[in-house]
User: Which sequence fits this backbone?
């Protein structure tokens, strides 16, 4: 019988240049972990470490920006999609190209870039922007 062990690589521990906190952990310390080149890195900080607090603040700002983009997209998408549908349905059958082809070409181009890059998908804010650009609301 053969046994296989799945080894979990140990995280690399990196000393914080600001607070230089190290093991043993105490209650007022925090451990930050992240992935870097596929490896887990951990860094111990004093709870009031300026580097840690700055990093947390930037993280929260990034989360807030993402939330705002998502919210804007959720507002933009339904109407942009409706305009897309209306434009599509109003076309004579022999004339189905124009902005549809341009919007599709842009979406495919972005998705292809992701496919050959990090493998992500075109996200809702991008869909909403592309539809809004190719099928703009009238009167603005
Ligand atoms: Zn620190």
Assistant:
């Amino acid at each position: 019988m053969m046994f296989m062990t799945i080894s979990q690589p140990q995280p690399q521990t990196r000393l914080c240049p600001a607070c230089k906190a190290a093991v043993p952990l105490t209650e007022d310390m925090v451990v930050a972990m992240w992935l870097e080149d596929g490896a887990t890195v951990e860094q111990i900080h004093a709870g009031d470490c300026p580097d840690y607090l700055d990093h947390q603040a930037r993280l929260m700002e990034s989360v807030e920006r993402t939330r705002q983009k998502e919210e804007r997209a959720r507002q933009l998408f339904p109407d942009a999609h409706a305009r897309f549908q209306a434009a599509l349905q109003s076309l004579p059958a022999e004339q189905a190209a124009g902005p549809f082809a341009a919007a599709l070409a842009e979406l495919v181009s972005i998705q292809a870039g992701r496919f050959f890059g990090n493998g992500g998908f075109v996200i809702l804010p991008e869909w909403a922007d592309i539809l809004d650009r190719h099928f703009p609301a009238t009167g603005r």
